[in-house]
Amino acid sequence: xxxxxxxxxxxxxxxxxxxxxxxxxxxxxxxxxxxxxxxxxxxxxxxxxxxxxxxxxxxxxxxxxxxxxxxxxxxxxxxxxxxxxxxxxxxxxxxxxxxxxxxxxxxxxxxxxxxxxxxxxxxxxxxxxxxxxxxxxxxxxxxxxxxxxxxxxxxxxxxxxxxxxxxxxxxxxxxxxxxxxxxxxxxxxxxxxxxxxxxxxxxxxxxxxxxxxxxxxxxxxxxx
Length: 224
Description:
The chain is of the alpha+beta class. The protein has helices at residues 2-33, 160-163, 183-186, 193-223, and strands at residues 40-47, 50-57, 64-73, 76-87, 93-98, 106-113, 119-121, 126-127. Among the domains are: 1-33; 37-127, Immunoglobulin-like (Sandwich). Strands 3, 4, 6, 7 and 8 form a five-stranded antiparallel beta sheet that branches. The longest helix is centred in the first third of the chain and has 32 residues, at 2-33. The N and C termini lie far apart (231 Å). The relative contact order is 0.10.
């Protein structure tokens, strides 16, 4: 009877020790797989010419979590950059936030797991690099072709309307006409001009003689 009781007690003790060991083992394993804020990290970098913030979750338990990024100014949130869900992995799961960050800007990253194990910020705020992302190079305009020094510049070719000038107006000529006559003949003068001049001279002589005779007669009458 006593032996049976002793055996029962020993068996109970053994079971109790085994249960405690199992509970301790499960507890350690659970703690090892539990999500922890130290498994989250963040960095500000450039994707081509765009600024981005990349958050990495290295939680091996793959506990679902929500990551929220805030821009800060003097310790105060001024803008929520974005919010994304993530399931971590031992290798690390990354989520990317597009953000045109300024040099030395400060960001607060908050992590909250669906099971409530984590609800806090990453230990240190994220500070952006002191140098901004590069901007794309602008294409250089192609200069127009230039004429080498010393090379004469060709003059523009005149158009047909410029090269053809109006025919000069014919000026009157003093040359005799083909018929042999002069301009005087063409305007009404002829060879009778000499005869007329001789008659006019004769009339002048006659008139002069008449005046002389008249003067002489007046002189004679005065003497008587």
